[in-house]
Design a protein that fits this description.
The complex is a heterodimer.
Chain A lengths: L1 H27 L9 H36 L7 H15 L9 H36 L6 H41 L2 H6 L3 E2 L14 E2 L2 H32 L2 H16 L2 H23 L8 H26 L2 H9 L4 H30 L2 H6 L17 H9 L8 H31 L5
Helix pairs in contact in A: 1-2, 1-4, 2-4, 2-5, 3-4, 5-15, 7-10, 7-12, 8-10, 9-10, 10-12, 11-12, 12-15, 14-15
Chain B lengths: L3 H5 L5 E10 L2 E11 L4 E5 L6 H8 L9 E9 L2 E2 L7 H7 E4 L10 H12 L5 H14 L3 H4 L12 H13 L5 E5 L7 H14 L4 E5 L3 H7 L2 E6 L2 E7 H6 L4 H7 L5
Classes of the chains: A mainly alpha, B alpha/beta.
């Protein structure tokens, strides 16, 4: 075990050593105008010592499991696929000290030997590469070396790799969604999915099971998302915008300094907390209110979920709108006041029109957040896929259905599981389209103040 | 009402008596007494930070927008108070218009920029009256011929000098008595500046104009009276010709000959 992490320790120690050694080497060289500070030469030495060795360590670690597995299983040419995997897992368990029956002890021995051999070889190789790298760098450290440029380039490459990782991850997620969705659409027709009015993903285990239709019409699910989002925006839009106007135009700086962070705390409350507040406090009170008024309000209602979600996304609207309004130049306000406009006339006729693109952006962000929100609706909106516009009834949303479909034990290739991917991909495209539209609106209508 | 004495010596349009302005603890303007005569151009000159803009902004109460700004003393427009806390500031600003240092057209069309004030105050209730008022204002600001074909384009798409004349048109569309101009040419090139100066000269037949300027040649060219301020105090206030040829105060002499400021 120690042997597997020892190379990393070696690399780190060598790296530190290389820094000081290289810096000392350049400092000892005949002084003249160097194309870099001594520290740059130090980093140059460190890079040569660390990077190749670390790459070797990474590559070795990634491939050695596969190589060992192939060697061990070559004794059992008659096994393949799942049977081979099963055998190999039990050999591994035995090697780790968890005894299972019917394990060929010879293979266990072989595995342990190979693992030790691999670790030792890796240790030797990494150390050798590190030392070689160090001397390679050392030889090149001369006053003519443009160490500053080289180190800057290395930094640039590191930054580029970091951004590539983020992009590749996104691409990978989208690809896996696309593949699974494609498989889903081979089992269920896209026409049924996009236009079907009935959502009931339970597959019958027995012929006579209740609600065993197994229907995958996603319209009610998306309608539920739409209904809850609309309710949430009806709450968050006016309240968020008005609080932003107050903060940006009327509030004393000291008041603003207190209220703005407090509002932003709303965005920091875990959504599950909002969820049980909606389910345990708001929904029952709405229901009781409904009884008093003679209305039928279901105890899991779109209204309760939407109201709470609206509260949650207020900061998305207010904070961004406030920033945008504050950024409207003071000269425009003075121009308006100078023509005898009052504060509210100035806001209505100058500030809000000038700030519209940013405000639209804030709204779009809030809508994306509302569409993607899961915990509140899981707890407060319910699971019944009713196709209704009545906010007093229980509805379900895309995110709730995804969560429900993937919770528990399912075969990974059942329609139920893959339906979750189809829902996820559709949701992804909806929010993507929203973001693109928002970006367009912002670009098209953004005012040039100059 | 017209009698010999008022005709020969007209009443001042604006009067300031012992006006002091404070930003918090700091005093920016000290006991200024000033009479601004109607239909004349009065220039405020002085080195940076001498309080000339601050004093100008007292006349239409723009300093109300600044936290901690406090004004003492009395200020009158046609004999009516403008400094008191019970003055209707909206009403006051319709009578005293303002043009700012940097052209600040609203991000709206040229038409809507000029129509902004009239719409606020219901000056021209019908569309045809408003059209006429917009055209007259743009004509009076000497920019009609340049913008009449793009009256629906955003005001921000005009050149700097055109924007400033648009702002002047916007200010005179509500038919004020007084125009305050806070360094109106400091952001403009010499040709645009010359156009604005000509315009100021024409406008003085109808409006009382106060202009703050850094440019002493400009003050000499456009104004009839000049007030020289230094360190928040009014040093000298007289006919422009006298200020620039034969000032009474040595520090005025030093400033206009470029020895400081």
């Amino acid at each position: 075990m120690l042997l597997s992490y020892l190379p990393l320790l070696i690399i780190a120690l060598f790296g530190v050593g290389a820094f000081y050694a290289s810096r000392a080497r350049i400092s000892a060289a005949p002084q003249r105008a160097l194309p870099g500070l001594p520290g740059h030469y130090g980093w140059y030495g460190t890079l040569w010592t660390v990077v190749p060795a670390a790459l070797v360590y990474a590559v070795w670690t990634i491939i050695d499991d596969q190589v060992i597995r192939n060697i061990v299983l070559s004794d059992f040419p008659e096994l393949s696929g799942a049977a081979a995997t099963l055998l190999y897992v039990s050999i591994e368990n035995a090697a780790a000290g968890v005894m299972t029956d019917d394990v060929p002890m010879a293979s266990v021995e072989l595995l342990l030997n190979l693992e030790n051999l691999s670790a030792a070889a890796r240790f030797a190789l990494v150390t050798a590469v590190s030392v070689l790298g160090f001397f390679w760098g050392w030889r090149r450290i001369r006053p003519e070396l443009t160490a500053r440029d080289r180190v800057e380039t290395a930094l640039l490459v590191a930054l580029f790799i970091a951004s590539i990782i983020a992009i590749l991850t996104t691409v990978g997620i989208v690809l896996s969604l696309v593949v699974e969705t494609f498989r889903f659409f081979q089992l269920v027709s896209p026409f049924e999915f996009f236009f079907g009015l009935e959502w009931s993903p339970q597959i019958a285990l027995r012929e006579d099971q209740v609600a065993a239709s197994g229907a995958f019409g996603a319209v009610p699910v998306f309608a539920g998302t739409l209904l809850i989002t609309v309710i949430a925006m009806l709450v968050a839009g006016p309240i968020g915008l008005m609080s932003a106007i107050y903060l940006a135009e009327y509030a004393h700086p000291r008041v603003r300094a207190v209220i703005k962070p407090l509002l932003e705390i709303l965005a920091g409350i875990p959504t599950v907390v909002y969820g049980f507040f909606a389910a345990l406090v708001l929904a029952p009170s709405l229901r009781n209110l409904g009884v008093d008024l003679g209305l039928t309000i279901s105890s899991e209602s779109a209204l309760a979920a939407g109201l709470i979600m609206g509260i949650m996304i207020i900061p998305f609207v207010s904070s961004l709108s406030d920033d945008i309004m504050t950024a409207v130049p003071m000269s425009l306000r003075e121009g308006s006041y100078g023509l005898g406009a009052t504060a509210s006339e100035t806001i209505k006729r100058v500030i809000l029109p000038a700030a519209t693109p940013g405000i639209v952006g804030g709204f779009m962000l809030a809508i994306s957040r509302a569409i993607g929100e899961t915990m509140i609706v899981v707890m407060a909106a319910g699971l019944a896929a009713n196709l209704t516009a009545n906010p007093f009834e229980a509805v379900t949303t895309v995110t709730v259905q995804i969560a429900t479909l993937l919770v528990g034990d399912h075969e990974f290739d059942s329609e139920k599981t893959m339906a979750a991917f189809a829902l996820g991909l559709t949701l992804f495209f909806v929010t993507l389209a929203l973001n693109v539209v928002a970006l367009r609106v912002v670009q098209k209508y953004s005012e040039r103040y100059e | 009402m017209v009698n010999a004495s008022t005709a020969s010596s007209p009443q001042p349009k604006l009067v300031a008596r012992e006006v002091s302005v404070f930003y918090g603890e700091k005093q920016a303007v000290f006991d200024v007494d000033l009479d601004i005569m109607p239909r004349e151009v009065t220039a405020f000159i002085g080195p940076s930070g001498c309080g000339k803009s601050t004093l100008l902004r007292c006349f239409n109460r723009m300093n109300d927008l600044i936290e901690n700004c406090r004004i003492t003393g009395s200020m009158l427009l046609d004999g009516g108070d403008i400094a008191g806390s019970d003055v209707d500031v909206v009403q006051l600003r319709t009578r005293i218009g303002m043009v700012f240092q940097k052209p600040n057209p609203f991000p709206k069309s040229v038409y809507d920029n000029v129509a902004y004030g009239p719409r606020l105050h219901g000056v021209a209730p019908t569309r045809s009256e408003l059209d006429e008022l917009v055209e007259t204002s743009l004509r009076r600001a000497g920019i009609w011929d340049e913008v009449k074909d793009r009256i629906d384009q955003p005001g921000t798409s005009l050149s700097g000098g055109q924007q400033q004349r648009l702002c002047i048109a916007r200010a005179i569309a509500i038919r004020p008595d007084v125009l305050l101009m806070d360094e109106p040419c400091s952001a403009l090139d010499p040709i645009a500046t010359a156009t604005i100066e000509e315009l100021i000269d024409e406008l003085k037949s109808e409006y009382t104009i106060i202009i703050v300027t850094h440019n002493m040649q400009q003050a000499a060219r456009v104004s009839q009276k000049t007030a020289f301020l230094n360190l928040g105090r009014l040093i000298e206030f007289d006919e422009t010709q006298k200020i620039f040829t034969n000032p009474s105060e040595p520090s005025t002499q030093d400033y206009i000959t470029g020895r400081f400021g």
